[in-house]
Structure formats: structure tokens, C-alpha cells
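Dear colleague,

As promised, here are the two records you asked about, laid out in our usual form so they can be pasted straight into your sheet.

NAME FIELD: protein one
SEQUENCE, THEN STRUCTURE:
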Amino acid sequence: MSEVLANVSCVAMRGRGILISGEPGSGKSSLALALLDRGGDLVGDDGVSVAVDPDTQRIVASPPPNTEGLIEIRNVGLLEVPTTSAPLAILIHLTADAERLPLGVAEATLLGQSLPQIDLYPDTPALALRTEAALEIHGIDDDAQ
């Protein structure tokens, strides 16, 4: 089973996919761009194809066919960048309602699989650093299967 998710972005960091969700205008593309600047690779912006790998049962994110290789830079335009595919390790949800110090990790269900979910407050210059920390602390690693 596979599908294209709309209104999400995805970046791979060290081979692990970070799915970014949030309301329109919450900064998904800006976070993706900041992660690219920190060495990440674009999977997709404003849409991502996802499917369960039958061998590992991990959700793999791939570039969406309609916007592959494009990332929006607000007030500037579209930038063409190389893309990759990656197994999803974490969902970062951008929301102004994020808890300052959550007690535990939420879980999202996608294609019948569980994925750690971290809510982050979107309007901070340290958002990319927080996202990388969430990936390292809470993200599924390659040996989790």
C-alpha cells in the first residue's frame, strides 16, 4: 500500500527520514530548508510519497511525482535540489500548542505503522537544532527492526 501525502515536507538526515507536518504557513518548508543547510537531503516539499517496505515493514518516503526536486522558499520562489528516499524515523509536527517539556513521546499511525511524533513550536531560530535532537533522541534507528 502506498499513497501521496499532501501538505507535508520530508528531509533525510544521515539516511533517516524526518516527516514534517503542520498547518499551512507554519514553517514546514522553512524547516526543511534549514535542515538542508545542515546537511540533510530533500525527500519532498509540500507532498511526499510513502509506502511500507515489505521486507523491513518500515515506512519509506520518496519524492512525490508532481513536485520532485522542488522546495519553496517563501518570498523568493522555487529552488531545484537533488532528492532522495529514506525510511521514516520521526514525525515533527509544527504547532503553537507544543508542550514546553513533554512527558514522553506521542505516536502517530501512518499506513498502519507507528511513528514517534514530536510537537515543536514553529517560531524559533533553533528549530532545525531541536529537530535534529528529536531525531537522535526519539527517532527510529536503522537497527530498530
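NAME FIELD: protein two
SEQUENCE, THEN STRUCTURE:
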Amino acid sequence: MNRYCFLLQVRPDRLDEYKERHAAVWPEMLRALADSGWANYSLFAREDGLLVGYVESEDLTAAQEAMARTDVNARWQASMGEFFTGLDGRAPDEGFLLLEPVFNLEDQLAAL
């Protein structure tokens, strides 16, 4: 399983509403994510709206493509797009700024 971390920017004035929406994600969306290969998916927010996402997947590109083929994802992305800055017309799930992995404790322990 591969680990991925990404950044997005939520509009600070919309952060509370963004958090509220994620406190009760649609059950159909949750099932679609799991069925599409998203595992251990988490989002973390800073007060200024910086959003850090973490997900595990065999292949993030394939998992994103599988989600793109679902109707629920199109509806969810359309409803979430207004919360973000810097997407230049892309849906939020297409605007991830992926971060380079630098260190993982378990990987280094396993290599000992």
C-alpha cells in the first residue's frame, strides 16, 4: 500500500462550514471512496484554511480515476468546489498538490 499526502487551500471564511460538511459525509460517497481503493483517508485543517490530506492506496491515480467514474463524486466535487482557492477551474479532487515522502518510521525500522 502506498501513502500519499497532499495540500489544498480552503477559504478561511468558509472553513467552519467545510468542517461541518465533512462531519457527515454522504454514506454513498464514503462507500464509493472505499470501493475505489481509498484507505485510511484523513483530512487535517489549519486555522488559515491550509488543508492537509493523507490517503493510502495501491495506486492513487487509479483510485482517483475510479472515483471520477461515479455519479456521487461528481455531485460531491460540485458541492465542495466553492470552498477552495487556487483550483483554476479544477474540481477539488483534481487540484491536489502531492507532497514528496521524506521519512517513514516503519519503513526505516523494517530496513534495519
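A couple of things worth noting about protein two: Helices lie at 15-22, 27-35, 60-68, 71-80, 105-111. The chain has a mean pLDDT of 95.

Best,
R.
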